[in-house]
Amino acid sequence: MTDLPKKELFSLPEGVIYLDGNSLGPLPRKARARAAQVIDAEWGQELIKAWNTADWIGLPKQVGDRIGGLVGAPEGTIATGDTLSIKVYQALAAALKMRLDRKVILSDSGNFPSDLYMAEGLIETIDKGLELRTPAPEAVLEAITDEVAVVMLTQVDYRTGRMHDMQALTRAAHAAGAVMIWDLAHSAGAVPVDLMASEAEFAVGCTYKYLNGGPGAPAFIYVRPDLIETVEPALSGWMGHDAPFAMERHYRPAMTTERLRIGTPPIVQLSILEEAMNIWEGVDMAEIRAASIELSELFIREIEARCPDLTLASPRDPQQRGSQVSFAFDNSYPAMQALIAHDVIGDFRAPDIMRFGFTPLYLDADDIRVAAGRIERVFRDGLWRDPAYQTRSRVT
Amino acid sequence: MTDLPKKELFSLPEGVIYLDGNSLGPLPRKARARAAQVIDAEWGQELIKAWNTADWIGLPKQVGDRIGGLVGAPEGTIATGDTLSIKVYQALAAALKMRLDRKVILSDSGNFPSDLYMAEGLIETIDKGLELRTPAPEAVLEAITDEVAVVMLTQVDYRTGRMHDMQALTRAAHAAGAVMIWDLAHSAGAVPVDLMASEAEFAVGCTYKYLNGGPGAPAFIYVRPDLIETVEPALSGWMGHDAPFAMERHYRPAMTTERLRIGTPPIVQLSILEEAMNIWEGVDMAEIRAASIELSELFIREIEARCPDLTLASPRDPQQRGSQVSFAFDNSYPAMQALIAHDVIGDFRAPDIMRFGFTPLYLDADDIRVAAGRIERVFRDGLWRDPAYQTRSRVT
């Protein structure tokens, strides 16, 4: 039995109920000491030697293996670094090389825009008449035809929390001869994922949400073990070379997943991420999932009972949801500003969505009830109408 | 008159002479406090709000403008983020889009391998018969023909310190109708660079060498002002979108250099980099250059007088060198290990090069003389023959 919640391992501002760990996870208490260690003792004292003495060079793999433990990826199948958008591009370019006879990339209209933008950029770069199709999420299954080279989906919808059936869609993709890429941005650390069982060729994800790696923490990419030695990295940087320091004239990819590394890894952020991953030690994702469902069901009951103006924008069936609940409201932007001012932090997503994330590592049922009370007051008293909440910030 | 050296602004290990700032710059004293501020006060207390309240969203541009001040790039022409390899890919892909009628990418055999590897990966991705040519550095000028779409060169050779003539080569590239990309990895903060005067279309660089941004600090990319509104980013992520938070279905690039941003920026590392850039405030690159030449000339004189077994592998004319001096020696690997053990830190580059970087911000003539004395002893007494120095580390 996991010892949940692990709230005391996080530094959370006094009085705040943080329901936005699906956007930026909170600060692990040990992150600062680890950063200080890396900065003062490793960088400051060891200088260039730290690549060996502090094993900076091995850090990306170590962290990747830790992430793998949460998403059903065997040791050595996950490379870390860069940003999620870069890893999407890399997975997509590699997948397209596996199906050169086909011209269609299939995603859905609910996918996170950056994934679709990266696909558009790749299509422009290749410039051979590739086509990106984005049917509604509900219509994806039937859109998987034998024209499709790659199916690229985000498992949990960033707006609504709706969750795709990873097994069924991967099976359908393979039955149609397509390569499957899963974006786990809202899955890793949120819901149980079994990448090996899914048989998907690729997965990508970010680590600053449910994994609490900090703002701009590095991303990850998974490749199915049987493909490791043949996958083409597309973004073929020296850190993916079989012998980076031999300074060979031609690229020769590593015979491990490290071939999907590109440039010099961001050591400070990777170290903080590793510290954040320590919190997951011994945590059972099935237990996280059960607790998350309990919290989100409680939240929906409370909000629907207290706030009649809000409309549930997430699937009602918890099995169809990730670890977030969204409500639609015409004035969601000022409403979320008002909630934040009243110490319930969620976020707004255009056009009219308020998102709330459920993270059992540091949230319990009491938090949800307190949050619901505060939310009720903001809507009951129309506090969101305050002019202070109407002006849009640069980041919404 | 700049107040050089600024040694007291860096935290350097007692007794060590650090001649490897061309590989990883040392720790600015204020970096840890800045990291603690970002981690504890911004991430910890402000959480997701820090994107606005701490202006995380504006940080990449602010840092870019600071870098611009050192390389002759006007405000708003440099985007930061990712790694140098990624920025090389992005510049190259964008440049190729500007010369679709041509098939040749021209670089040189002395370019940093990762730049060439990224070009190879892009060529594979585009798969339309593009060709990468890598003549010897001395033969590049005559290899610029009207077949060449893009000339992509690193100004200062990572092995030898040999410096290309940026003006002459850019002029030749343009005369042949080619697009020019400069990699400033060993130039930014090392030698005076005037990007605007060069008229080059693109430049890229890293910030963990002479700019002292820390291990894995973010990279930068410059685009000539007249091209900003038309350049195709290729790696088209949401942070380069004109309205990232509008979550539009299609990519629509920002009408600023920010279009070359890709994913979520690494806030902790960017903040440390910004702190490192503060040290450059009021520093005149002409003065840095004069001091660097003084130091490197002194070093060459001392080493040639004291160590007859070493052969200068850098141009003897300081105007032909960047801010590093390399010596060739058959047993450079163990020799460099011995030097490091005797508190003179440089680095080894395959096959037989010992590199020493000159960084007047924190080095003076006394340091060079002390280093020369230690180096003399290692070679005079054959200390490098010690078996302890023969085993290769993972990072050489």
Name its key features:
alpha/beta; Aspartate Aminotransferase, domain 1; seven-stranded mixed beta sheet; four-stranded antiparallel beta sheet; homodimer; Kynureninase (chains A, B)
Strand fraction of chain A equals: 5-15%
- The oligomeric state is homodimer
Largest sheet of chain A: 7 strands, mixed
Q: Roughly how many Å is the radius of gyration of chain A? A: 21 Å
Give the strand order of the largest sheet of chain A, numbering strands 1, 2, ... along the chain. Answer: 4-10-9-8-7-5-6
CATH class of the largest domain in chain A: Alpha Beta
Q: Could you tell me which chain pair has the largest interface and how many residues each side has? A: A-B, 96 and 96 residues
Family (chains A, B): Belongs to the kynureninase family.
Cofactor (chains A, B): pyridoxal 5'-phosphate
Pathway (chains A, B): Cofactor biosynthesis; NAD(+) biosynthesis; quinolinate from L-kynurenine: step 2/3; Amino-acid degradation; L-kynurenine degradation; L-alanine and anthranilate from L-kynurenine: step 1/1
Pfam families (chains A, B): KYNU_C
